[in-house]
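FAQ: What does the model actually see?

It sees only this:
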Amino acid sequence: MAMNACPKPHPPPSVPAMLHLMKLAVGIRDPAELRAYQAQRAASGMPVQHLTRHLPRRADELLAGGSLYWVIDRAMLVRQRITAITPSTRADGTACAAIGLDPAVIAVMGRPVKAFQGWRYLRGEDAPEDLVAGSAEADMPHALAQRLRELCLL
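And it is asked to produce this:
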């Protein structure tokens, strides 16, 4: 085990491995802005979805309870459950995939992420845990929570 690493509980082997997606939230500064943007879309009758160039090859696995983990300011901070994955077309006529999302944006234990393009698959055992609403960590800045976690104080 690495120095300063806290032991992470592993799911029992009988639990099937979940599959998720990790995606950069380009232009979004914090989770509140993502929530506001998606609430505005939903209020105007537009579907809560993300358009991406390629249809995920492992769509069936993602639809079996997977989530889209949003990377905001270089950290995975929130997730949304994936509800549908369908072929679609952008306004300019180019083909794409529409990833339908549950409107609920769930805060997770923030985890730093290196820069990447597009989206990446994320195994269930590698996904950060959800934050408990109203917990001290849910109300503190991400950088502070991350440092306290590194020190095994959270």
